[in-house]
Amino acid sequence: MSPPDYRAMLAVAVEEARLGLAEGGIPIGAALFARDGTLLGRGRNRRVQENDPSAHGETDAFRKAGRQRSYRDTLMVTTLSPCWYCSGLVRQFGIGTVVMGESANFHGGHDWLRAHGVEVVDLGDAECIAMLGDWIAAHPQVWHEDIGQD
Amino acid sequence: MSPPDYRAMLAVAVEEARLGLAEGGIPIGAALFARDGTLLGRGRNRRVQENDPSAHGETDAFRKAGRQRSYRDTLMVTTLSPCWYCSGLVRQFGIGTVVMGESANFHGGHDWLRAHGVEVVDLGDAECIAMLGDWIAAHPQVWHEDIGQD
């Protein structure tokens, strides 16, 4: 089997983030893949669109993937370093790999995940950094709400 | 202000767990309260009922509570020690207190939460222990799926 194409996988998460942006939402997207590249689920932050504080990109993608018997050989691909909520999801369900577009705008729980055996890849993607960075600068209040900062 | 009545709050979470049991689901319930006792949201595990692996009791109650500006003065009341996914939720959003019915059937992330400044109360409730314990004994496979054990 050829190695997973992280950039191609990230493109799906970025597409979700762009959809969110077009809807007026926080531009963070994610997708859950099997190791062979099969897309299992894709999702995006929908706090603003659906008034749903539980819909982070990663949890939305996880939800859309439905019930899976094992997550060991799955990859959670996300435009941003996963927050504690999403990092907890990865750890609890034993998702094997996290691929993140960036960790410059927000440093979540990915060090903790790495310390607990999860493979973590940071692509340092310039488009992800710019898209969310611009959004945060324009909407600091909603951003702080989304990461639970009073 | 009188101190929160943890037992009365737990009764709401237990009611949710019983509803889940009646629906054929995993009997775990939760509710998010303001410190003055106002109920903000209540929910239950709905993995089986809705094929939704993201609907744990705590995340469901959090979702039902809608967008809140701050969680510092809220209490997450749950029939069971919160798993890593739900513990991550508590930490990220700064929920001040976790009240759990029991931690005998499952020991989640509550020590970690305590170490990070969350007030954690374990009521050691016999009904919670029996309800989930009986269910796990009868449905070990779905239980292992719910906590991400292959």
Automatic annotation (TrEMBL), chains A, B:
GO molecular function annotation: diaminohydroxyphosphoribosylaminopyrimidine deaminase activity; metal ion binding
* GO CC annotations, alphabetized: cytoplasm
**Keywords associated with the record:** Cytoplasm, Hydrolase, Metal-binding, Zinc
The highest taxon in the source lineage is Bacteria
Q: Where is the CMP/dCMP-type deaminase domain?
A: 4-120
List the pathway annotation: Pyrimidine metabolism
Q: Which cofactors, by name?
A: Zn(2+)
GO terms for biological process?
Answer: nucleobase-containing small molecule metabolic process; pyrimidine-containing compound metabolic process
Cellular compartment(s): Cytoplasm
One Pfam match, given by its short name, reads dCMP_cyt_deam_1
Instruction: Kindly list the residue ranges recorded as spanning the membrane.
Output: none
Q: What is its main location?
A: cytoplasm
Q: Does the keyword Cytoplasm apply?
A: yes
How does the annotation summarize its subunit structure? Answer: Homodimer.
- Please state what the protein is called: tRNA-specific adenosine deaminase
Q: Which organism does this sequence originate in?
A: Pseudoxanthomonas broegbernensis
Lineage start: Bacteria, Pseudomonadati, Pseudomonadota, Gammaproteobacteria, Lysobacterales
